[in-house]
Specification:
Blueprint: H1 2-13, E1 25-28, E2 31-34, H2 35-48, E3 59-64, E4 69-74, E5 78-83
Amino acid sequence: MARKCSAERAELQAGGFARAKKNVTIQYQGRERSEQNLLDLIRADAIARGAVDAEIMNVDVYIKPEEQKVFYVINKEINGEIAF
């Protein structure tokens, strides 16, 4: 029984920020985009460029609000950009 209690305490301690639900919003000069909105737009753009959804393993995102663009690289092969 002691093991179960110890495991439960360890799980609770591992909680906090690591397990918290997160919401990221980028704001710049009166415009704002949520993280999920940007990821949805990137996914749609990448699929339109020929990416296969099931094969997407890595997405790098570079947000440049001063240029009003979001650049992305999928699987280190597919480069693209969307409007911020």
